[in-house]
């Protein structure tokens, strides 16, 4: 099964492999470049850091014809999906068409921003755990019809004020260079630890 307009991009996922299962890591966020490096796009920032660590900056994601997400096969058992073409609240409609093109037993991990964790912290949460009000995760849950996916929660910290307007402004603000450095070091290292056995 393949994306239209592309030459058998996922063929390797349907061929015999030494790995028992395929892992798909999906980063979710708002449309880029407008929202690049904003806190709400922490899942995309981390996905890019993982990609660069695994295969280098020169490897580029591929755009699915007519789709609002990009993908990159890393090897016969790992594929990355970058949901960067639509708003995070619509993540389910963005990623589900691509997920359905993968093996039924694919292990899905969604990288997303997390207000309840300080910057530099990363947690891997098992399927079925609380979505903690994250609208991007809720969208995927609604489209999938279940919570059968892991969540890679990327800490962005929380503003002192809990006022919804202030929180909304905060998640749409850009990371500072110093904060991006923390993501590239502490967050990436934590993510690699959490993903042992998956990648």
TrEMBL record:
GO MF term set: peptidyl-tRNA hydrolase activity; tRNA binding
Keywords: Hydrolase, RNA-binding, tRNA-binding
The keyword RNA-binding belongs to this UniProt entry's keyword annotation: yes
Lineage top rank: taxon: Eukaryota
Pfam families with a match to the protein in the record: Pept_tRNA_hydro
Reactions mediated catalytically: an N-acyl-L-alpha-aminoacyl-tRNA + H2O = an N-acyl-L-amino acid + a tRNA + H(+)
InterPro entries membership: Pept_tRNA_hydro (IPR001328), Pept_tRNA_hydro_CS (IPR018171), Pept_tRNA_hydro_sf (IPR036416)
Entry EC no(s): 3.1.1.29
Family: Belongs to the PTH family.
Protein name per the record: Peptidyl-tRNA hydrolase
Lineage, highest ranks first: Eukaryota, Fungi, Dikarya, Ascomycota, Saccharomycotina
């Amino acid at each position: 099964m393949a994306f239209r307009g592309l030459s058998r991009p996922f063929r390797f996922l349907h061929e015999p492999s030494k790995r028992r299962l395929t892992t798909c890591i999906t980063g979710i966020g708002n449309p880029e470049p407008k929202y690049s490096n904003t806190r709400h796009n922490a899942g995309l920032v981390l996905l890019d850091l993982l990609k660069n660590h695994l295969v280098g900056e020169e490897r580029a994601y591929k755009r699915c014809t007519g789709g609002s997400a990009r993908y990159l096969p890393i090897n016969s058992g790992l594929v990355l999906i970058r949901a960067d073409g639509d708003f995070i609240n619509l993540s389910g409609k963005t990623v589900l068409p691509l997920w359905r093109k993968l093996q039924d037993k694919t292990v899905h991990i969604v990288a997303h921003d997390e207000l309840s964790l300080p910057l530099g912290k990363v947690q891997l949460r098992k399927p079925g755990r609380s979505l903690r009000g994250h609208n991007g995760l809720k969208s995927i849950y609604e489209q999938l019809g279940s919570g059968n996916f892991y969540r890679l929660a990327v800490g962005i910290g929380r503003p002192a004020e809990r006022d919804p307007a202030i929180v909304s402004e905060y998640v749409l603000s850009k990371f500072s260079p110093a904060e991006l450095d923390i993501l590239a070091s502490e967050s990436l290292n934590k993510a690699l630890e959490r993903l042992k056995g998956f990648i």
